[in-house]
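Weekly puzzle thread! Below is a chain. First person to post its structure in token form gets bragging rights.
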Amino acid sequence: REQYRCSDLRLREVAGHFHLYMWLQNVISKNCFIRTDFPTGSGKVDIYLKCGERLGLIETRVFISASEFRAAKHQAVDNAIKSGLDAVTIILFMPLDEKEVLTKISGEETIQDVRLTVIAIGWLWQRQTS
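Winning reply:
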């Protein structure tokens, strides 16, 4: 309830980003180094992982529209290429809890020889009334 919100009262992706980051810290930080670029509301939202010699990149996004999602996928692929990686994951927070839709959005595809994995997570937010 007390999460940072956009002007239209939607939760910013910072809330999901912090939850994911803390979960990763709890689960894999003993075996992996986790670095994050904490979101500012307008910049990149990335979590970098290094587990031994393996590197990984996770980007968090909130679903706004199909066109923004398509652009986010290409941006994630570009970031992977710039980082010298052949794979990237997007955690996509969606304003619904319908498992069928989340399953349909989630999956893997290859763009510019980069394996892109999308994991859609239902995340309901509501307007708060006083």
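Puzzle host: Confirmed. Bonus trivia for everyone else. Strands lie at 33-37, 46-51, 54-62, 87-94, 107-111, 114-122.
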